[in-house]
Specification:
With 103 residues, this protein is an alpha+beta fold. Helices cover 32% and strands 35% of the residues. The protein is built from 3 helices and 4 strands, in the order βαββααβ. A 4-stranded antiparallel β-sheet has the order 2-3-1-4.
């Protein structure tokens, strides 16, 4: 399995209405995109304010394998979401890694 982590940093055009819509869209991915084993998304509630750096929305997707992750990028549902971010983003951090379990 492969973990896909995304942290979103939005610009001044971002607001709570948009946030609610984006969260609903992200949460729908599990039912709409093949290869997703698990998915969570949410608003950053960290109390470590020195480390937040403006990243306010997070996404974690567990994929069956690297092929599922590769197919996720160009999937029409994902691409529609990416297009909906136009004019809202300041930065995005993405980390993908194979899941290694202890024991």
């Amino acid at each position: 399995m492969v973990e896909h982590l995304v942290c979103f940093k939005f610009n001044e055009n971002y607001n709570p209405e948009i946030e609610k819509l984006l969260l609903q869209t992200l949460l729908s991915f599990r039912e709409l995109i093949p290869g997703i084993v698990d998915l969570t998304a949410g608003v950053n509630v960290t109390e470590e304010t020195a480390n937040i750096n403006g990243y306010t929305l997070g996404l974690r997707v567990t994929f069956e394998d690297m092929q599922a992750l590769r197919e996720y990028g160009p999937h029409p549902v994902h691409q529609q979401f990416v297009q909906s971010l136009d004019g809202l983003l300041e930065n995005v951090v993405v980390i993908d890694y194979p899941i290694i379990k202890n024991g």
